[in-house]
Amino acid sequence: EGGVGAVAMAPLSSALRSFGSAYSSALTSRPILTKSVTASVIFGLSDYSAQRIENSSSAEDDAKNKVDWTRTITSMLVGLLYFGPAAHAWYETIFRVLPGTSLVSTLQKAALGQMLFGPSFTCVFFATSLMQSGSFTLRSWMAKIKTDLPGAWAAGLGFWPFVDLVSYSLIPSRWIPLFVNFCSFVWTIYLSMVANRGEAKGDP
Fold first, then answer.
1. What keywords does the record list, in alphabetical order (predicted)?
2. Is residue 180 part of a domain?
3. DSSP class of residue 64?
4. How far apart are CA 122 and CA 195, in angstroms?
5. pLDDT single digits (tens) 108-161
6. What burial class does residue 35 get, using C-beta atoms within 10 Å of its C-beta: 0-12 exposed, 13-18 middle, 19+ buried?
7. Range(s) of the domain holding residue 187
């Protein structure tokens, strides 16, 4: 049975090795583009999943299956144009400023991420959500930040420090953005639901 299972898994194993090799080559030749496209795909999947969760409580079948593709494309653009390049620059900078791999250095990197990168990304995400809904003004953006950023930041404290500890201590630096992108799939589902909370309820 074990031999049959190994034979059955061989094509998948080969495909994964080929993908890993191709992705590694792309990271070397076009690091920012590769990370940006990866982030774009994951952000799109996250928003699609968030909408399915939001609509699951609807009593109408049409509403359950409805997808706001403009919202999903907007999320993909955030990943492509902001998160991918920003994450690349952030990790390049953080490893240059704090090159060590000790526990103290790891905790410092995680703390800086929570204080700087995380909140700034959340604010950008809120802004693009308001833009795609047609309700963006500086006042509405500031109100959104004031209302939802503290809660999102607090929720992130229960998720991102653990991701940072694993990534900075166990993952090779060139693969950290990919690891973080996969972890952000779960987080971006939550963030998309928070960012679009008012629009989902039909609030102004």
1. Membrane, Transmembrane, Transmembrane helix
2. yes
3. H
4. 9
5. 999 999 999 999 999 999 999 899 889 999 999 999 999 999 999 999 999 999
6. buried
7. 31-196
